[in-house]
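Mods, move this if it's the wrong board.
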Amino acid sequence: MKLFTLLLAPLFVYASQSSLTLSEHNSIHGYNNKPTVKMQKKRNMHKIHKVDEQMAKDIAKQETGEETISLKLIHRAKLLIYHIHTKSYEIEINALDGNIIKK
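Not the wrong board. Structure tokens:
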């Protein structure tokens, strides 16, 4: 029973976040790795996100008090995530609603 509960825990964490719709997910997810297709995927991700880069940097600065060293928009499951590095922290911010996923 404990194992079953542990397996279901990540589902509840991801379910509580804003996530991509099926059509949005399909627009950025594919298996063709040509450079032009990769560029189109990045363009699609940037069209979909609701929190822009500057807002993500501001959220990270409020949370850590440090300046952002690097910022990258990534796709994981049905989430768009800003992966941010500061001097002492790694932060993941949901690019759809601005919630902090991991610090």
